[in-house]
Amino acid sequence: MAEKKLRIDMSVAEFDAGYFYATDMKAFAREIGISVGNFRKSELEDLIRDFLATGKVPSRKPVLPRKPGAERDELAVNVTVTNYVGDKKTKQFLLELVAKKEADLKNKSGQWYWLNDWRRLRQESDRTFTYQDLADHLHSLMTTKGRLPQIPSARMNNFITDFYSDPQNSDIPRADVLKAWEWLKVKSGPKTYQKYKRLRSEES
User: Fold this and answer.
1) In which domain of life is the source organism classified (predicted)?
2) How many domains does the chain have?
3) What is the pLDDT of residues 123-146, one digit of tens each?
4) What is the C-alpha separation between 35 and 62, in angstroms, rounded?
């Protein structure tokens, strides 16, 4: 089955049933007048979905983590987050602050994504917060019981995680899991492991 193409006249249901690469979504967003900037794929999906539902270009604009040409923030607890750089240096600094609060915490899958999401939302709403605030939220993420929420729109990664969470799949090679994903990707409807299982059971 050929992969669907993004079209201005497609319905929201048709959009949700398809699978589109980030590069194609960015090109389509620019075509309809959306400022792509540093929006994540999940954010672009929401904006495109709004456009398809209303016919109007969403007014939301991307907010960069730092001002063009500006020096990065000094890494200190009371410094207001203004020109953020999410590199190893910043992550190590934040982990050191977390360790002062509670030593020997283990990293949790998705913690940097959700920390970045928390920071971006506050920068978009012009809320003031410090690097200590960032570290406190990172501590909250790292001490969350169970798994953190799955990353929006990372559908392949979510599929693989859910695939291996099923005990009957524990010994299946990753190459075969990727083949299963490629098979599901071109099917209509949600791109989830639950949908994959249902479709496979219907075939058998």
Assistant:
1) Bacteria
2) 3
3) 878 899 999 999 999 999 999 999
4) 7
